[in-house]
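dude i think i finally got it to work??
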Amino acid sequence: MRSGGEHGTPVVDDEVQTSHLCGIELDHEDAGLVGMFGAMDAAETRKKKVREAVATKTYDVFDAYHETGYAQAIARSSLFENVTLTVIALNGIWIAYDTDTNEASTLLEADLQYQLADNIFCVYFVFEWVVRFLSFRRKCDGMQDGWFCFDTFLVWFMIGETWVVTLIQLAHVGQPNAQPQSTESNDEAGILGVLRLFRLLRLARMARMLRSMPELMILIKGMLAAMRSVFFVMCLLLIIMYVFAIIFTQLAKGTAMGAFYFPNIQHSMYSLLIYGTFLDNLAQFCDEIGAESYVCLALVFVFILLASCTVLNMLIGVLCEVVSAVADTEKEEMNLLFVTDKLHNLLYNLDENSDGHISKEEFMAILGFPEAVRALEEVEIDPVAVVDFAEHIFGSGAGKTLSFQQFMEILLNLRNTNIATIKDLVDLKKHFVWHLESLERQIHGKKSSIPTVAGSEDHSPVPGAGVDATVIKDLQARTQSLEESLNAIVQEFRIFVVKHIPGDHGLPRATVLSPNNKSLRNASQPGKQRTHSASRQR
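look at this
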């Protein structure tokens, strides 16, 4: 690496092989070092994806609603949401009561209590759908919301089953030549009875209650995530059952217990599943087999150890591990979504120029709100330390701004629970070397601008050059002290890197400034070296 790019940025030599990992330019050796530790835990990987996903504004159906109006106010109300969940729960309980006690095949033939209950539920769900539909600014946005489409299907089906079918029945009964006891009427009643079974679709609305119960969602997502592992465990169990079914069918041939438990491969697998895996009536099963063959009894014990005690317990362990990982991920997601929404709302209110970017001043203003401080503490971010890192986040330049996504990515990297990786050490090394080289260029620039006497080894100032001699001497003393301090810091950093990161780290010796090493300073300024040599010769 060498300096000389625009604005003091380091320029990488052509012979230095580089690779890009996570958007950061690394030396070839550093990239190989990172590859050694590239295998990460699955839960940590999912958490990283969650942090990347929540760095942007998440979808919220309320964003598609009107800002004013009665409908949107009702739809946004938490009371309205709680009442709706309560009605859904009562509807589920009422369906069970209606199934047990209502003997009528249609709603028109049912007692008054059933008619009133069904009409009340239908009226409320239609009212809820209308309120949510009127809340959308653009009505077609409702088709992009999954829950609204789901409720639309259920509501229109409920209207058809409760009101449309009843009106058709009333119109049919009101005809003068109607014959309710005819075969045609019985067929219609049978069709309506089948339609009545579709009332169970109302129970699907209870899925909306899962949104208010995160624990249930965690269990469901855990089961879905473990389906692949469960499938292969079941395949292993099926193979074991198939092998032992063949063994028992051959060994028990010609015996009474063979004719009852193991007459063929299919029945043998069934017997091993019921008695050997699910352990149903195991004592009688073992006694009857042991009465005729001790060898078969020993094989039964082996099968039980393999199938019931090993495979099924392994399945339980897999499910527990997956559910635990999903629970950690869901907790991470909920905390990060809470922090993201809170900071996004505060930024929206404090964004003076409405450009969607955050500056250092706006960020410091956000930290003045207690809710923002509590939100940061929820995700293990120290608000006091964030204040110290403000210059690191926004840089030392004035007027620098970051997009909300970039700001959240940097902020989430400052969590106390984050684990330091090899990438962090490599990034620290790059950052350190770049600053040292930048500081070296600034020091040489200052020293080259000071007039000196030709042939002077100590670079003494030119008398009468318009610069106070005491100021120049003080500057030289400060420069020498700074060079010694930088030399000590770089040496300690090299020891740290060599200790923790094996290999050739490519730290250039030109970055280590020594006041006694004139050859290094002269090598960095060949023009000045030639000038001093010519002066000494004259």
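The chain has a mean pLDDT of 74.
im so relieved honestly
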